Amino acid sequence: MSLPARVKLVEVAPRDGLQNEKNFIPTAIKIELVERLADAGFPNVEAASFVSPKWVPQMADGAQVMAGIRRKPGTIYSVLTPNMKGFEGALAARADEVVIFGAASEAFSQRNINCSIAESIARFEPVAQAAKSAGMRLRGSISCALGCPYQGEVPVESVVDVAQRFLALGCDEIDVADTIGVGTPLLTRKVMSAVTAKVDPARVSGHFHDTYGQALANILASLETGISIFHASVSGLGGCPYAKGATGNVATEDVVYMLRGLGIETGVNFDALVDIGQWISGHLDRKGGSRAGNATAAKRAA
Ligand code: HMG
Ligand code: MG
Q1: Residue range 269-293, pLDDT digits in tens
Q2: In this structure, is residue 1 part of a structural domain?
Q3: Which helix (H) or strand (E) holds 130?
Q4: Of residues 144, 148, 171, 240, which has the active-site annotation?
Q5: pTM greater than 0.85
Q6: What distance in angstroms lies between residue 269's CA and the mean position of ligand 1's atoms?
């Protein structure tokens, strides 16, 4: 199959990238990160979570982040909403898109959102209905689609089943997420092919954590199955608090570098992105987590 001419990149660093940070990051830094990413050309920035602050303290200032950002016209600002309480926060914050997040693994569903897969779908129903009546976009994220930290292998049928349930809820987009970054290209191709046999590929996205260094290869495998939406986190920031040992999402700089080499358009300014990666890594007191970003910064300094 020929590769798409254009890919939509969703920048998830302000949410997935920061949620696992131990020290509380000032709201002003979160706001600046969201603004700079939108200015760099991302059509979609995942900006905050409206989840329990007891479960994920780093995301407790979601309302302030959303109230503080200067919004770039046309950019979609997404937030995570596990239940109606989260949805009400998202509505008040004028989010463009709400994200319901379930799992293809029962064990992970219990640890991450404290309920079974079936219970989570029932909880998402009113959120989905409210989002649709409010004219908001709705996205559904499927965790552990390529493996689970508690259960190990996850049957492909479970991923397809949750994808179909999300479709029935009215999701505009469905994320196939490798939460712990264990997937390899063969499995990625198998899962993406099975999901896109039931869901229009234009609505399916790949969300790859890079724990085992497979994320770029998995993106290429997904491109070959017709997927053209990917999530990435600048400087490879992140991890899930309920997936111990899992590292961040694939670094956006690396993804943009690869896509550029493949002649695929993203609309993202690579140089601005490298600057953002170096800036936020400096704030977090660590070296940049993107190979392409660090190489570019080193070349500039030489
Ligand atoms: P629960 O304890 O079962 O819920 O948590 P509850 O309804 O019994 O509420 C307990 C308390 O939380 C109450 O407060 C609620 O008011 C409060 P209390 O009365 O004890 O003071 N509460 C809330 N507060 C603010 N906003 C809310 C909210 N809901 C309840 N929306 C719940 C269930 C889902 C809320 C909880 O488990 C939770 O918040 N989990 C957080 C999960 C999370 O954020 N995980 C990380 C993001 S997912 C991810 O990273 C994966 C992804 O990247 C894809 C991938 O890589 O796989 C998307
Ligand atoms: Mg994630």
Answers
A1: 999 999 999 999 999 999 999 999 9
A2: no
A3: helix 117-133
A4: 240
A5: yes
A6: 35
